[in-house]
């Protein structure tokens, strides 16, 4: 394989001058193109994104803390939106380079791809850069985008807070109306069902019924106790009346008069506050009537003196009479209260259906009212939090962009990298020249060895005749080789000169293409 490659190189070497001419042509054209490329100057600005404002730790748990890093990503992505690109192009005069709508669209696309926002390698520091053939234009473009970045930050903070507050205010108004409607419905229902509300009196229907039955049982026990006490007192008085007696004046009439007078005073006091139908009034009138009847009976039997008349002078007997009368009044009062309590229990049982229905409806209305009120209170609390957050954002501004280095364009162009391009053109010229020589060898091949001749034909090869080169031929070949090496060396010299005088040659070539030959 190595011998084959050497033979191919020797065969292509025959066309070395052709290769050198092609290499020179490629080098000249390539160098002209490289030096005609316009320079691009890059403007840069360093921006610090302050995401940890002083108010953030102070307002933690009191105001809403937005995700400033996510907002930073959104702002940097929306910075290159088409409206912003159009604004920058018009503001900097870049749009004057476009004469048609299609040219303007292409210009905006190039502007969007040309602006770079990169992380500068330090926490929260970013580089905003743009390259343009006009150094001043590159600087103006970076300055315009930097201004938009600063304005969008303030606008985003204020706009998001305003949107949240408007939404919460609308919701608070809606729930305020719902809360008023629920309160009115609950009040109207309670007004329409006075006396049937389960919680009136501190208990529901079943508790009220149980309390009424318990009170009835208590009254019944008190009534039975009073009746038993009256019977005991009557037995004791009968025992005292049936015992030994002594002569004397019967004071029973006087005692009855005193009791009548006492009961009459009590009756007069009750009539000042109650009607004649009040149970105590009825009981006192009944007792007064009984005492009056008894007094009349005593007067009719005044001629006969009995043991009762004698015993009535006993103070113990008199106290027992008073106790008996009091017990009798208590019995009558308890009987009336028991009747009223039974009627109340009957009314409660008769109203069971309505009371339970009112209870269920009241629970439903109360549940709706409580739910609406809780939602209203939560929305009102969030609205106050949103207002506090907006005030904190406007005063502290939890996302700020601070310009570390203002936009500045370098005096040395950043592109194109003409040195590297010239090296690539030189390598391409050498490759194309060598390829052209090899192509000529392939279309006009020759035999350089006996083995190649034998392999290419079936005819037998007897031998080879050598060429005897004269001195003149040697001198001619030497001059030819020197000329070829000089041509190839001059091509290398051109490369070195292009690398050395990069700026001067660029201005010369660009002036030639713009102004033409002078």
UniProtKB/TrEMBL annotation:
It comes from the Bacteria. InterPro entries: Bact_polysacc_biosynth/exp (IPR050445), GNVR (IPR032807), LPS_length_determ_N (IPR003856), XrtA_polysacc_chain (IPR014345). Residues 359-438 form the Tyrosine-protein kinase G-rich domain. Residues 165-229, 253-389 form a coiled coil. It is a multi-pass membrane protein. NCBIfam families: pepcterm_ChnLen (TIGR03007). This is XrtA system polysaccharide chain length determinant. The lineage of its organism: Bacteria, Pseudomonadati, Pseudomonadota, Gammaproteobacteria, Lysobacterales.
């Amino acid at each position: 394989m190595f011998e084959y490659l050497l033979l191919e190189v020797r065969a292509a070497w025959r066309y070395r001058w052709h290769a050198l001419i092609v290499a020179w042509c490629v080098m000249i054209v390539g160098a002209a193109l490289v030096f005609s490329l316009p320079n691009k100057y890059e403007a840069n600005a360093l921006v610090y994104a302050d995401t940890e404002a002083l108010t953030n730790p102070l307002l933690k748990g009191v105001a809403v803390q937005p995700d400033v890093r996510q907002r930073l990503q959104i702002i940097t992505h929306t910075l290159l939106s088409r409206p912003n690109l159009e604004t920058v192009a018009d503001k900097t005069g870049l749009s004057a380079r476009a004469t048609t709508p299609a040219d303007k669209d292409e210009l905006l696309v190039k502007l969007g791809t040309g602006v770079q926002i990169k992380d500068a390698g330090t926490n929260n520091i970013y580089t905003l850069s743009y390259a343009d053939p006009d150094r001043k234009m590159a600087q103006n473009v970076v300055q315009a985008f930097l201004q938009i970045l600063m304005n969008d930050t303030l606008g985003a903070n204020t706009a998001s807070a305003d949107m949240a507050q408007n939404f919460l205010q609308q919701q608070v108004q809606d729930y305020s109306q719902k809360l008023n409607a629920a309160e009115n419905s609950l009040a109207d229902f309670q007004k329409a069902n006075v006396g049937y509300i389960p919680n009136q009196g501190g208990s529901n229907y079943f508790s009220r019924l149980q309390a009424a039955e318990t009170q009835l049982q208590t009254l019944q026990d008190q009534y039975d106790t009073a009746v038993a006490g009256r019977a005991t007192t009557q037995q004791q008085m009968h025992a005292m009346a049936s015992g030994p007696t002594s002569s004397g004046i019967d004071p029973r009439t006087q005692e009855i008069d005193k009791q009548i007078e006492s009961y009459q005073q009590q009756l007069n006091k009750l009539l000042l506050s109650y009607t004649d139908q009040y149970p105590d009034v009825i009981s006192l009138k009944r007792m007064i009537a009984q005492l009056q009847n008894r007094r009349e009976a005593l007067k009719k039997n005044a001629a006969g003196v009995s043991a009762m008349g004698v015993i009535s002078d006993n103070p113990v007997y008199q106290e027992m009479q008073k106790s008996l009368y009091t017990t009798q009044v208590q019995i009558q009062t308890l009987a009336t209260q028991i009747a009223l309590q039974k009627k109340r229990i009957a009314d409660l049982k008769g109203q069971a259906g309505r009371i339970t229905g009112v209870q269920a409806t009241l629970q439903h209305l109360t549940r709706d009212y409580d739910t609406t009120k809780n939602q209203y209170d939560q929305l009102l609390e969030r609205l106050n939090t949103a207002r506090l957050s907006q005030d904190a954002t406007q005063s502290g501004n939890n996302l700020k962009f601070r310009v570390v280095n203002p936009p500045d364009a370098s005096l040395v162009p950043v592109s194109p990298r003409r040195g590297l391009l010239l090296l690539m053109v030189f390598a391409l010229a050498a490759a194309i020249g060598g390829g052209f020589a090899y192509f000529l060898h392939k279309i006009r091949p020759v035999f350089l060895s006996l083995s190649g001749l034998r392999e290419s034909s079936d005819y037998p090869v007897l031998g080879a005749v050598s060429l005897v080169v004269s001195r003149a031929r040697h001198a001619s070949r030497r001059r030819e080789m020197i000329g070829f090496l000089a041509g190839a060396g001059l091509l290398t010299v051109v490369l070195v000169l292009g690398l050395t005088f990069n700026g001067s040659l660029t201005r010369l070539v660009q002036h030639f293409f713009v102004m033409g030959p002078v």
